[in-house]
Write a structure and sequence with these properties.
This is F-box domain-containing protein. The chain is of the alpha/beta class. Among the domains are: about 40 residues; about 140 residues, no CATH class; about 130 residues, no CATH class. The chain is built from 22 helices and 22 strands. It has an 18-stranded mixed beta sheet, sandwiched between helices. α14 runs parallel beside α16. The longest helix is centred in the middle third of the chain and has 15 residues.
Amino acid sequence: MLPTRGRKRCLPVVPYTFRKKLPNYGKGIKIEISTPIIKKKIKTLENLSPAERVGMNEKLMTKIIESISNFKERKNIELTCRSFYNISINKCSYVPLTSYESNNVVNSTRREKRGLLINIYQKTMEVNIPEAFQFTSDVAKGLLMFLKRYLPKMECLYIIKLFPKHFDIFKKLPQIWDIKTIKMSRHALEVGCMDIFLIKPKLSPVTFIASDDYFVVDSIPCHDENNNNIEVKFPETITNIHIDCDTLNFKWLLIKIEVYEPGHYDNLIIGRHVIESLIDDDRKNDFLRIITYFNKINYCTKDFVTTKFDCDVAKVVDEYNIITSLDILLQKESFDYYDIISEVFKTEYKELRKSIVKDSSKRILANQGIYLNLNTLRIFDWNRHERYHQLLSVDMEYLIQDLKRMKFLTTLEMHFHLISNIYDFNDICKSLQKSIKNVKFYNCAKMEGQHLDILGEYCNRIENLSLQSIYKKGISINKISNLFVKLKGLQIKFSTEKNYYQLWNDLRRDDDEENITIMKWPQIPFVHIVCNVPSLEYLELFEKMEKITPRLPGRFYVKRIFDGERIFCEMVIQQKSTLYDEFIDLFSMPPANL
């Protein structure tokens, strides 16, 4: 628990005279005493106390602060005395308290000639050692000291490049690390980096991620039965597996998990491009076998109309009662191209579309295996070049019907522009069940206050709400707080400056005694706001508010964002420093081209 340390306002010390009134000593006689405030003398090196001498020794203070292993304690040093911290510690050792504050800033880096590179981002360590790199005794000693110092504090180890000949450096490290996530690039998997589980058998990660974050040459062969990685088992502590890299087959993963009973693992996350690459029967069958070992999976499709493989997945999900998260990335078949096609063809196409979707067996959301196990539904406009088209009326009609079936749906994400009118929006909100807790709408350019009234009427139990790209007036923090009394988290982006003035009035509180304006804490525990401001002068009002508002560390941030000539103010207001991370984990980011 971080100690309570509010920021104190430092007033300038200037000589002044205060007037002390004394009793009258005779008629018309009044005595006044003028007492000037005495300025403190500036101390010289000779009359400094021992503690002050230590504090002015930059090298000594650097060693003292660097020896503090607890990140929160170091953070408190910075918050209580920022200038003292800055002169005593190198800027690349800065430790942010939340992921919002870190913003991917490198905290520490170890770089050697010939390509060795190790980066630390908050509590993630990236290891990148090329095959040609050779350890000298001095380099090995320095790297070992670096890893011993930082690795025990990390929660995620990301191996980008590492080869078996470099494993000796890890063998010399202490056995117990507090690593919760092991992440490997496809390249690292293919050269045998999973052997790290043999080298460090006491590793106890909870999550394993196979990633394609970094470019890998496609000519490298993928896992097969001859690859020795197959013999390496996952640690028993792993419960979540995330596969986001292309692979020629799933045999390597299936062999590692089939030693357990179905339902042994908690979560399986498969990247969209990996699911789209399931084109041959062998990989499809392996995928269907793999999902039986998990209690929760994600899946994606391109239309409300189901395919044969969609039905196969739904059948397995239904048989094993697997909780499902579904992304529907809509293509042009679902959109109303009123400005492109003729009315005659449009009518014919709608009739053809209706003849297909009215059959519930041909709609993925009407499949029993899906709607009985669906807890997260995301509906995105995937058609990048024809954006902001609305759903066909027949698709909207059956979407509303299918939403009524989803008794366990907790999270809904959707592009707001897909909804053509307020009547459809009313029907969508009305069809959502009491289980709904988290709602996020993108591209809310046409959203008005009455839309919020409808959402509040039918879904007043919402706990987390995210509204992106608000353009119209009538939507404010106070209005949302009154409509959703159980709201725990709110994320909202105002894309026009006309919303600024209402936002300022919602968040300001005037302190008449001190003659200052501080923040009025919202009733909602977590609020993340991005607002277009008219000019820098208006943004500086919030920055001034940030400086003088007392609070605990990590509770209130203000940041400037520039988008061309437009200026935005970003604010994070939270009652606990962990709420930002918790809220962000609830919702996904939309695909990159949306």
